[in-house]
Amino acid sequence: MYYKNILEVIGNTPLVKINKLNPNPKVVMLAKLEFMNPGGSIKDRIGLPLIERAEKMGRLKKGGTIVEPTSGNTGVGLAMVAAVRGYKTVFVMPDKMSEEKRNLLRAYGSKVVVTPTAVSPEDERSYYRVSDKIASENSNSYKPDQYSNPANPETHYRTTGLEIWEQTEGKITHVVIGMGTGGTISGVGKYLKKKNPKIKIIGVDPVGSGYDHYYRTGKMPKLFKTYKVEGIGEDFLPETMDFSVVDDVVVISDKESFLIARQLAGKEGILAGGSSGLALAAARKVIRKLKTGLMVVILPDSGKNYLSKFYNDDWMRDFGFLDEKNETIKKLLNKKLHFITVQSAATPAEAVKLMRQYQISQLPVVENKKVVGTLTESILIKSLYGNSKIPVSVAEIMDRDFISLPETASETQLAQALKEKEMVIITDKQGKPLDVLTRIDFLSNFSV
Fold it and tell me: Which of 33, 90, 257, 355 has its CA 20 to 30 A from that of 321?
């Protein structure tokens, strides 16, 4: 069996059980991995329907140009269609989107125009208005406009909603979906409500977007706050957003979104984007309140487009998303292979031999399996050279004033300790020594 082209591969993405990050094992939590689509996101689904609608209406002709405002993923979906059907593409993106996304679109042969993020939709510099201008100034060009095109929610009604219903054998009780254009939640919600009106449709909105305010008041807020999560939330109400199928809206911050996405990779082996972290963070809040059920959370795209952003520790620190107080030193211990010690009764020469053998410059000194001191190169030099009396044992020269920290200590605590001592003894919860960390171990944790 083979497919005639890449577009036939789109859809039928798998449901995968969330285990470690599900805080309520009484309720099954399943993640729909939309990054398994060939272009890497849920937006692959709407690319072909948007273009087929234009072709049927006579709006897009052979050799024409597709112009679209996008956070990146819809652009990829359209770019794949353009490659197969022979169209040109121009995509307009806000400047907060990752460089990986821009380069990805260029890899498909698309032209990318970057616009300011922190402007209103009506501003001439917004990616909505710039795309309008480009489309109007170029003959034989067409703007599908995912924000108003009915093919957007219709696609999710026909495919995504249907798949979820069939994959769960109709047992689904809750679905959690991030709200961007509104196409996914509107289409999926409409289909599932038709199948079973009792199914709860939960929308997720980032802090700074206007959807939650609109859901609760019927009006968009007058003031908006910029946020870092990409491809989600809005500062206006798209025609493709249907709140009649939404049962509740949960608001999630940038920090929550990014930290949960990172945990998803580290604990479940699923590398997903920030909007996936946002959806999963909301799902975790909702599922805690349930007694029974089966929840599906949609993960829209892959984390590969965000390696330079929230998967990068320096980027996270720059924006204050990594709470250093919660960053323990455990990850530094994983890099150490051996806990090398020297007995207090050993000679200095034996200590030097150990240092040479393992290419280390510090040693914990133990006696009866307990750390009683530390030994460094500087101590050995001072003791062995220039002194009339050569020490017989390590115990005579070791530094008894050492510092120990539990493995749960923060990086900040370690940094403070290493300002005073060249090495710090790390212990487990029971006080048993596990390892030593040196200044170079700590500094190696930072990219220079």
Answer: 33
